[in-house]
Amino acid sequence: MKPEVMFLSKKEVKLVHEKALEMLENLGMRFEGAEAREYFVKAGAKEENGIVKIPRSIIEEGLKTMPKRNDFVLYGRTPDKDVKISREIPSMAAMTMATHVLDIHTGQRRKATDEDLAMLTKMMERIDTVTVASALITPQDVPMQSSDWYTWATSIKNTTKHITGGAVGKEGVRDAIRMASLAIGSEEEFLKRPFISFWVLTMPPLRVDENTSNVLMEAARWGVPSVISSGGILGMTSPMSVESALVHTHAEILACIALAQLVNPGSPVIYSSFVRGMDMKTMCITMSSPESIIMKGAMAQLGRYIELPTQMPANLRDGKILDAQNGFETGMGGAVGALSTDFIIGMQMDMDLLVDFADLIYSDECMRILQRLARPMSFDDETLAYDNMEEVGHGGNFLESEHTLYNYQEELWTPRVMERGNWENWQSKGAKDIREVCLAEARKLYDEVKDVELLSKDVQNAIDAIASQSADKAKNIKR
Questions:
Q1: Global model pTM greater than 0.90
Q2: Measured CA distances, 401 to 382, 397, 404 (Å)
Q3: Which candidate in 167, 195, 222, 333 could, as Cys together with 75 as Cys, close a disulfide (CB 3.0–4.6 Å)?
Q4: Closest among 207, 214, 260 to 40, alpha carbons compared
Q5: Is 260 within 8 Å of 225 (Cβ atoms)?
Q6: Are 147 and 174 in contact (CB under 8 A)?
Q7: Per-residue pLDDT for 479 more than 60?
């Protein structure tokens, strides 16, 4: 069986789900877009002053029509990058929208650029543990009003892996699909294998703005996946109670799932949550506090309960650099994520604001450890090794046996950048700390991929043209 971590008992999972259904029926959700409200009213919900009270029958019908986890495929642009959720061990998904980087050459913190995004995306294309190569940063040197368009353009040009990103209204969704269709060859081919998905973020407590519902509805019409997430903050946009936060967060996600299914039954959705804590002394959001990690694990259980693929930001660190704090946060959040969710969102520090090129190498190493941690055990003749026990005998040594020779590479995880030698060996290699080692590897990879182009110049120019023409559209879209 695959090892799991559970913060909620089966009884508690069911209780949270039932309380969320009650909340939607009795308190309802505020949908600020009239079109979204109309879908619910037509299905039998009651609406007053923008608040929709949703009968459980609407939620339950939506849960029937959505694609289930065991049948879910997250497409890459090329088939070799597809992820079949039911068979895969946990993998890494890039978080989005950081604004700063640590310069790979100088180590200085500075604003992120479009060139940084291109290079980070090219590097993620080569890192096997990353299966969702979303835009780690939002370029700060492009027109801010239409930055989503530029971010999609640069991401699509530089990876064949799946990409999740934000969009501004229906036009943003349509233009991202246009870009993706150019990259894969045609709109027809894209619809066969939609290799992009859209973030849908509620506005806790119990509210969805018009832009968000428009993105969700438009993605559903196209049959493109939506990653639905609620990100309450304890004591600010959630009650100061982990238990209460789980209920309203689950309720908000259920309401958005129902809307997607009302628009287009069978449209794919992924279950996610950014519910988190806040430091009451500094008033800063905490992505790696114990409360935040507990809620990620519990929310993953709720996603599994309704049979959806889950994607949790369990590896976003509050630490500023690759130091002991960052290492502990990576281990704590990563272990919970690996044993609870399908995709671990990560590769950002400083509360989602900063990306370090060296961290891509570090996170890859950690993800390989976590994948080993989460690998199921299988008690068969090969693993039980009875014949090997018989061959070596009582008090023997297995070092020279064929079973050891044939199985040690698969059975034992071996580091690529972490240190396992003795003190003298470490000193002989320069006595470097983990960031120094990872940075050297990152620079090698950076140089290897900097001139790689995955699409023809004509296709790249056509994609860029969509982004450059987006300014007027962005002005007219409600945010």
A1: yes
A2: 14, 8, 5
A3: 195
A4: 260
A5: no
A6: no
A7: no
Side chain identity at residue 235, one-letter code = G
Q: Which two tokens stand for residue 141?
A: 């040197």
Radius of gyration of the chain (CA): 23
Q: What CA–CA distance (Å, rounded) separates 32 from 191? A: 29
In this structure, the strands spanning 73-74 and 83-84 are antiparallel
- Give the pairing type, strands 285-286 and 277-278: antiparallel
Tokens 């290799």 belong to 195
* Strand, helix or coil for residue 250: helix
Per-residue confidence (pLDDT) for residue 86, from 0 to 100: 81
- Which residues of 170-273 form beta strands (DSSP E)? 196-201, 207-208, 226-230, 269-273
Given the structure tokens 């979303």, which residue do they identify? 134
Angle between helices 147-158 and 169-184 (to 10 degrees): 20
Alpha-helix runs per DSSP H in 126-167 = 147-158
Please state, in angstroms and as integers, the Cα–Cα distance from residue 13 to each residue in 10, 202, 224, 227, 299, following that order.
5, 22, 29, 21, 9
Q: What is the pLDDT of residues 357-410, one digit of tens each?
A: 999 999 999 999 999 999 999 999 999 999 999 999 999 999 999 999 999 999
Q: Which conformational region is residue 352 in: left (phi greater than 0), alpha (psi within -120 to 50 degrees), or beta?
A: left
Q: How far is CA 307 from CA 63, 345, 387, in A?
A: 9, 20, 41
User: Would you mind telling me the total number of residues written for the chain in this entry?
Assistant: 479
List the one residue out of 133, 37, 28 whose CA is nearest residue 76: 133
Is 466 within 8 Å of 177 (Cβ atoms)? no
Q: Which two tokens stand for residue 292?
A: 């935040």
H-only helix segments in 144-186: 147-158, 169-184
* Element containing residue 439 per DSSP (H, E): helix 434-449
Q: Per DSSP, which regions of 403-462 are E strands?
A: none
Model pLDDT for residues 228-238, shown as the tens digit of each residue: 999 899 999 99
Residue of 330, 244, 305, 287 whose CA lies nearest to 27: 244
Widest distance between CA atoms in the chain: 79
Contacts of 170 (CB under 8 A, 6+ apart): 214, 215, 217, 218
Reply yes or no on whether the pLDDT at 465 is more than 80. yes
Specify the amino acid at residue 347: M
Do 454 and 159 touch, CB atoms closer than 8 A? yes
